[in-house]
Amino acid sequence: MTAVLRHRLRPALLVLTLLAGLVGSNGTALAADPKPLRIGTLVPKNSLYHRQLLEIGEAWRAAQGGAGKFLVFPDGSQGGEAEMARRMRIGQLQGALMSVVGLQEIEPSIAALQSLPLAFRSWEEVDHVREKMRATMERKFLDRGFVVLAWGDAGWVRFFSKEPAFRPTDFQRMKFFAWGSEPAQQEIMKSLGYTPVPLETNDILPAIQTGMIGVVPSTPYFALASQIYASAPNMLEINWAPIVGALVVTRKAWDEMTPEAQTALRNAGEKAGVQLRAQARREVDEAVDAMKKRGLTVNRPSPEQLKEWTALAEQLYPRIRGTLVDAATFDEVFALLKAYRASAPAGKTR
């Protein structure tokens, strides 16, 4: 080979050498390992919700040939939901399964699905409103740098108290657990004669045990899993509001994924959302039955007492509109409910 020919071939040989370093023994290009996904949540370890997150992670990893780490941090180990939202923004977490309490730290209008007491009469109504508003909500989250992968819920909020209580005025002498990240809600409660005590979720159990608080608004499942009912053995049977949630990941983490990983994650999230909603709704009655066997007293308000709760909710709405929930979204929810009730069978609105 002449010196001239070797000179001409040198760039080509260099390119081939570099390519050889990027090709495995099976002849396929080796992609860089995907960046780990760290997912935070308050849900208990080994619960249905935790298991669903792990299944989503397996689907995501399988789409990448088993590469990548999908790490789930349950039990609030990454802090409360407001803290998890902060951690996602600074890159310490790439995603979280949260209720509206945390989601509204990202997009405030989401509060309309959870912060309207006695607005929803059935799960069918919750589903209808969520699906009607879903596309708009997901666009709002995307604009703020987050991708919604799954929508779920965790049951109806009931009031668990140390002492029996049936009417709104019964609770005015008790101290309420309140989310530390919701000062506007606390001000509304105070204006109506209630005493909120702002805490994080991990502080609820010691607070109820020591008498720091006397009432915990909670879903039956969470009350059972956290053992709240043991110190607050009275439950008012009223569906005050649904706990609605979603699994979100940061747009930055999403954009760094391969198209195959994105598709797998979205499909697994959609499937998990359906299963989470179905299971959570079954668990309301199952959890109540389990707690009743362990000493829980279920207090059922009379029709007259229910009217007092309805009157309280109607008194709350003007305070919520424009504060906890922006006026336009508030009006949209009630317009959707009105239209649904006008067209739905009676059994679907009770």
Automatic annotation (TrEMBL):
Protein's UniProt name: TRAP-type C4-dicarboxylate transport system substrate-binding protein
GO biological process: transmembrane transport
Assigned keywords, A-Z: Signal
Organism domain of life: Bacteria
Organism (species): Sphaerotilus mobilis
Record-linked NCBIfam families: TRAP_S1 (NF037995)
Signal peptide bounds: 1-31
Gene3D superfamilies, sorted: Bacterial extracellular solute-binding protein, family 7
Pfam families per the UniProt record, alphabetical: DctP
